[in-house]
Amino acid sequence: MAAYDTCSLIYSYLTTSTSGYSCTYAKYIATNQIDLATVKKVDCTQSFCRSFLTTFASVGAYSDFGSCYLKDTSSSKNVSLLSLASVCNGIDVANTGGTNIYVPTYNPSLYPSGLVTDVQTGISTGAIVGIVVGVVVVVIFFGVVIFKYRQNNKASPPPPAYIVLNEPRQGHHATATSTAGTTSSTGATGQSTRLPKPSKDQPDPCQPPIRTVGSTLDQTTSNSSSMTTLTHKSMPGQLDLCELDMHRVHPNDIHLIQPLAQGAYGEVWVAEHLGVSIAVKRLLPSKTSLADLQKFIWEIKLLSKIDCPYVVRFLGVSWTKPSDMMLLTELMAGGDLRQVLESNQSTNHNHQFTWHDKVQCALHIAEGLVFLHSMDPKVIHRDLKSRNVLLDADFNAKITDFGIARETDDATMTAGIGTYRWIAPEVLLDGHYSESADIFSLGVILTELSTELIPYSDLRNDKGNVYTDTAIMAKVMAGELIPTFAAECPMWFVKLGRECMALTPQDRPTAMKVAYQLRSHVQGFV
Prior knowledge:
12 helices; alpha+beta; 3 domains; 526 residues; five-stranded antiparallel sheet
């Protein structure tokens, strides 16, 4: 891909990251332009805008972006990103004073010192600059990840009939390891699993499609290939298995050990692959209609496109016939967030889920949403709740269960699917929503992290009774009811949660803004 495409991608993400500030160059970056005369006169005197310029220069120092130039409209000359580091030399920053933030007192047993304070504190210019630079770096990171993902998809070897998740040394079994901040299991080789990607020059490995012509499930094997052509005989139509063969693992290498969880449509098992513990999701025997199978395949296809440290890692897929299809993912040893919160209410639990752990958990969820909402096309989860957030042994959180998530090129989508206590009011009202519906669900999860209770379970109506499901949905749609926060919860956390649960979708912050605020507190900037 030409350097121009790389630069255009970076310019687009830099524009997005600066659009919320009054920097004069924010609206020109996307068109590869900058007015250095105005920058020196206005932007160099502002800490925010000045720090962004320093970050641009840091980006230009990388070889991938060394050929990226902007046209200076004031001189008609081209300037490199790297040269922006010296633009503000000799220009003083205007003194705007500190920013005071007040947070009420708190319960020390729940909220350890160092995270919140009950006195007014000023944020130094250095801290502000650090926060801004951190935000921009994250934005650039996601942009580069998406770009490289697309690049890798364009030149890869053709997929084999089956893949191996981990290739252990001869005579040894691979062992599962859990490392904070990582998303993949490692074998005896110590290397992470890397799944092959399809070549766009190769024929579609899923052709011909599975055609339905009868009443039973059959499997036939082609003489020219070890790949199978599957025939589902139950109703007119066909299954689309496109892009799954390249992730296929031999069924004989998957050994189910014990059930872990069960829902309305599927069940999750602890399993092993070549000695490595993994998680396996499959449909219930009563949910293997053609429509159910296709939805499951779509879920697998979507997850196979996501490679993010805050989303449960996709490892592969296995089947002998469509109704036996199994989704293979990493195993999260800590269980789901709802289980952890319920356990945390007991004095007998082994590892307390501290306030720091909770804020970090919220940050990880927000970071996962940043990635999903930045994909092209963007991905809206649509069923974000505490049960769909998994934790490892160190309480690192990852989003899971994309059974009803969808990719979309549209600004809004139509559907009314999900668990009502976490669903945004516009979805309950008419089913129309955008990615801001995920932000509302995140806000509900923030209340859970505060109270450790199921949302709305602590609220009572005017007669002293718990609210019925119907009453909750009616009041949420009317904007008359949101879940509560604990009385001792820090005010900044309460404010953030309430902003996420704003009745009007446009009033909710983006996932990136939520992640920025949470990261600022985790890293001690405020």
